[in-house]
Amino acid sequence: MNLPAELQPVLAALQNVGRPRIVGGAVRDWLLGLPAKDLDIEVGGASFGDLHRVLAPLGATDVVGRSFGVIKLRLPSGTEYDISLPRRESKTGAGHRGFKVEPAPTLSDAEAAARRDFTINAIAWDPVAQTLIDPHNGGTDLRARRLRHTSPAFVEDPLRVLRAMQLAARFDLSLAPETAALCRSIAPTFAELPVERVWHEWEKWAEKSAAPSRGLRVLAETGWLAHFPEIADLAGCPQDPEWHPEGDVFTHTGHCCDALVRDPDWLDAPPRRRRLLLFAVLLHDIGKPATTRREEKHGRLRWISPGHEAAGVPHAEAFLRRIGAPHDHAPAITPLVANHMVHHHGGPDGLGANAIRRLARRLHPATLADLAAVMRADARGRPPLTGDDSLPLIERLLVRANELELTDAAPRPILLGRHLIAAGLRPGPGFKRIIDSAFEAQLDGAFADESNALIWLRNNLPGGPRPQA
Questions:
Q1: Contact at 8 Å (CB) between 165 and 201?
Q2: For the chain, which terminus, N or C, has the lower number of CB atoms within 10 Å?
Q3: DSSP 8-state symbol, 238
Q4: So what's the pLDDT on residue 347?
């Protein structure tokens, strides 16, 4: 395992007092060929005093985790490492925090690893002997792309089910049947979880997924989908097989989420935009269960869902509240849900300039680039169909948005209060009416720059046109 050079003196110092091990997600990620971030070090056979004594000369030490046997070491470079003693956890109450945690320096490697949630997270690296320590066969599970619990103590922490959801999605894993059974057995304990912890796991799903449908499948296999009824209602909601040969809305949604995370636009996006887009795709058809019915269309009975875009907005808002999403997320996500079919509304020539300006305004704070990413995912989420009927329309919309310089921003009013004052008007209630009328005219293409906005103003001032000063 390739470790930073600055860590070598730390490991040498720790070796003098105990058995240092690199533990947790960093080892898992290294074995998967991913960058090993957040290196955590566990030291068996040492006391807390020993750890502090040998670490203090190497950097700043924060001992706020003394009761848990944890020291945060900040090296002169600014890099921080968590260095801890093996510890023993015992269940003392309900919920994610109902544990008594105490350092246990004499635990063996196997005993220390047993407290970890999944076998793939219970692999350690001995930096001295340069060997893996894998007492729970996590390496075998990792090669099989299998997520399996480490011990029966798994059931003591209900948060681990949601961790299974986001880990399966991030690393394209399937859940071992025996682990799924344990998860089903503790489904009622979901209520014990604080909403901020629920959000933390969904946040990872939305930012880091490689195969988001794997996480949704974990929720379905474990019975935990019932805790998110807006998503659960998608399962079994029918779609017309000519347009959606892949199956019901839940199946379609999984395909769409997987399509999004393969889109270069999503892969290159910062974490917040990734998160907003994946939630928008997850929720884009959330209105279908309430609107789907069987009706004759194009000469035969079909499943249709008229108005599902707008109907999905309150359901999307309810889901985001349920998982504890930040308050600024719904305003950026719901316009994408409400407008994700708009590329089909412009006829064969697509949307005109006025319609695109108004669409960009409706989407704010989301953008037309965001909407295009959601629509591409929707189009590609219908295997074996490839989206050839929709992708050209989406591309045409983006080309026109680029021409109008509206791809990444909503139109802004050109005519402002200062223009009205310069025209001799006094500030008052009528200001807003004039500015609003001007903005509507701007969206309709009456003017596109300041000089033409001033001409429009002179011609539309109360009392009729005025001469130019």
A1: yes
A2: C
A3: -
A4: 64
